[in-house]
Amino acid sequence: MQISFSTYLHRAFVFSGLLTLLLALAPSGFAQTAQQIMDVACANDIRQQSSNTLWESTSERRSAGHVFVERTIETLDGDVDLLVSVDGHAPDGAEKSKNDKVLQGLLRSAQAREAMHTAMLTENKDAATLMQALPKMFLLEDRGQTDGIETIAFKPDPAFQPQTLEQRAIHGMSGTFYVERKNMRLTGIDAVVAEQVQFGYGILGTLDKGGTYMLRRVEVGPGVWKTKNTKLNLNGRAALFKAINKQSEESKSGWRAISSDTTVLQALSMLGVHP
Questions:
Q1: 19 Cβ partners below 8 Å, 6+ apart?
Q2: 77 three-state secondary structure
Q3: Three-class SS state of 127
Q4: Which is nearest to 71 in space by CA: 130, 144, 1, 150?
């Protein structure tokens, strides 16, 4: 299981406040600033987390010159991923061994399932903090609406002080947010690393200028939006001068709603994983 950058952007905890609620319920003609639009879009995305819906989907991921197809089932304790194919063929070798080890570990060990649940809670907390901060990181400019999609340009707000490495990386980007106005949902991001980002004054690493990130989302059910496409192209340097060279592209499809009380063991059975 791999936690992607896009995962951090579409998971979070619930915003509170009467202003957010009033803005979310306001008619589409209500005059809103770019800041207010992003506040409501993020609040609605956050609210989805408490909707208690679980889904099955298929993903195609292109990374390191290979194409990986995975089947994913969401559960109460996190996502369970089954590697279906690599470069159009049934998986074998190291990739299959790695995936089988994870799935068999979940099947045999209650401790592994508990650790997965704990990791999910930590991930959700981190994502929540990031999503809550997202509208505050940038100077926003409304570029108008086309076919129901509001285009909002963003660039780093120098007054914002990032609190985590993830916030620092995202705060270094400029680009465009796309918000579907009917439902007030974030439907896309186009971003570029505007200037080199340094972590720990460069001691912990850097993120090079010019890196790009793309995200597109679609409504898969009433009020439920999922990430359909992501594309990442980042370069830099990690601690001890280790090069960062991250290029990946992922598309998801075939969403199907499943029982909202699906457990890890039930998901493994659905995927045909047996002792």
A1: none
A2: coil
A3: helix
A4: 1
Is pLDDT of 93 > 90? no
What residues have CB less than 8 Å from 274, skipping those under 6 apart? 107
Q: Which of 143, 208, 141 is nearest to 169 (CA)?
A: 208
DSSP one-letter code for 44? H
Q: Residue 53: how many CB atoms within 10 A of its CB?
A: 17
Closest to 41 measured CA to CA, from 168, 151, 172, 190: 151
> In degrees rounded to 5, what are phi and psi of residue 49?
-60, -30
Angle made by CA atoms 10, 237, 102, in degrees to the nearest 5: 50
Taking CA atoms, 124 is separated from 7, 76, 133, 165, 239, in Å, by 9, 12, 14, 16, 26
DSSP strand E in the chain: where?
A: 54-63, 66-75, 78-86, 138-146, 149-156, 173-180, 185-193, 197-199, 205-207, 212-221, 224-238, 243-258
At 12-65, the pLDDT tens digits run: 322 223 333 334 444 444 448 999 999 999 888 888 876 779 999 999 999 888
List residues bridging with 56 in a β-sheet. Answer: 73, 256
Distances from the Cα of 249 to the Cα of 47, 59, 68, 133, angstroms: 27, 10, 10, 26
Please tell me the distance from the alpha carbon of residue 131 to that of residue 137, in angstroms, as a whole number.
10
pTM of the model: 0.82
Q: Which two tokens stand for residue 209?
A: 């200028």
Q: How far apart are CA 38 and CA 44, in angstroms?
A: 10
Q: Cα 217–219–221 angle (5° rounding)? A: 145
Task: Please tell me the distance from the alpha carbon of residue 71 to that of residue 59, in angstroms, as a whole number.
Answer: 6
Q: Where are the domains of the chain?
A: 5-270
pLDDT at 250 (0 to 100): 95
